[in-house]
Amino acid sequence: MNKTKNDLAWEKLFDKYNIMHEIENKGFFQIESKDINEFREARLATKFDHKSNLPKLFKDNNLSILPITRGSYIISSFEAYKEFSELNTEIIRISFPYYIESIDYENITSESIAINCAFISGILSDFIQDDKLLPTVSGRMSSNEFSFYINSTNINRDVMVTVSNSQIEIDGGYEGIDSLALIEAKNSISKDFLIRQLYYPFRLWNDKIVKRVIPIFMVYSNGVFTLYEYVFEDPQNYNSLVLVKQKNYTLIQDDINLNDIKDILYNINIVEEPKIPFPQADNMKRIINLCELLYNKEMTRDEIATTYDFDSRQTNYYADAGRYLGIIDKKKEDGDIVYFLTNEGKELFKVNLKKRQLKFVELILRHNVFNKALKEYFRLGQIPSKDSIVEIMKESDLYRVSSNSTFYRRAQTIKSWINWILELIIK
């Protein structure tokens, strides 16, 4: 596995400060920003929003890192992350105020705009069940001082950590009659999140006000707002958070129907297979989400892995899937692989959401193997079996796919992308 810049920096830090020996003796190691800066900027060397972002030494030794002051961190075998759970898949449709011209809700390109849209449209009011919400606190602030218990997985018990004036950031704070909702927003899809992003703001405001403080995580991607409401059952315990509610919302737009899909399927011109690895990336939503992020800026392989809960291999798979579709490309810059949107990829974000989804359908169905697989679906009335898909693949002159095991692995991607297309149709 290729080592990231963070892997290399932490190898040097672990060696210089004998960090593993200190943790084995004391149960933790405290390190200052100035010491980290010797090998890598501390801001970059300590930002691990997902468990998979952790440097190899942390993963191998079951370690995590948390800030405890504005310039220091503590490393131990903390249970610092929480996996997302889906309580329902229904998508609630909400209308956007007709008189708002300064926000294009069909082309949301940042977390701050996503939060504004969720507030303006009434998504937040519906989710929190309070129609008196007003924006109050947001931005960077100091945590003040507090202590908490956190589970240490290597010794399987809670240990106490004290935080004093650590920097925190609140993406959005909305106060209503009975509560203050603190929102952590992301425009990237992931499997888990760092509990600290909810817990530190919760502790700051839970100690300051009488009203109930509601920690909310919001994920926006490809027209869908997914909101998760948590409660810390014991405010002094970092690991006591429990998911109490989860809902999905979309802002009303033109529907995609069966004829839209069939129109593309039977009229698209089939292209020659590109000399690019055939996709091994099952989640089309994540490919689209990666394009959303690349629309804002070019990203190195490390930056993609840091934004997502991807390792370098998954980064390659999803970026290569975008390259296969002709919407992502890569170049070498200062020794790094840098990914960017092609002109065709950029055009996707200049049209409304319905047209964008249909363009993704076109990009998929112009490839013979996907086109034939979807035609088989309409002929059979169900998704073709993997055996049938493999037969189609073998007739489609795919680039560097030869062994039977590879055909069957890639067949799963075809089934997943066909399912994604079918899910676009409003039943």
What's the gist of this structure?
With about 425 residues, the protein is of the alpha+beta class. InterPro entries: DUF6996, DUF6997, DUF7226.
Describe the overall structure.
With about 425 residues, the chain is α+β, with helices and mostly antiparallel strands. It folds into three domains: about 5-75; about 85-250, no CATH class; about 260-425, Winged helix-like DNA-binding domain superfamily/Winged helix DNA-binding domain (Arc Repressor Mutant, subunit A, Orthogonal Bundle). The protein is built from 17 helices and 19 strands. It has helices spanning about 5-15, 20-25, 35, 40-45, 55-60, 110-120, 125-130, 195-205, 260-265, 285-295, 300-305, 310-325, 345, 355-365, 370-380, 385-395, 405-425; strands spanning about 30, 65-70, 70-75, 80-85, 90-95, 135, 140, 145-150, 155-165, 165-170, 170-175, 180-185, 190-195, 210-220, 225-230, 240-250, 300, 330-335, 335-340. It has a seven-stranded mixed beta sheet. Strands 1-3-2 form a three-stranded antiparallel beta sheet. The protein has a three-stranded antiparallel beta sheet with strand order 17-19-18. A hairpin with a 2-residue loop joins strand 18 and strand 19 (about 335-340). Helix 11 (about 300-305) crosses helix 12. It is globular, with a radius of gyration of 23 Å. The mean pLDDT is about 95. It holds the Pfam family DUF7226. InterPro entries: DUF6996, DUF6997, DUF7226.
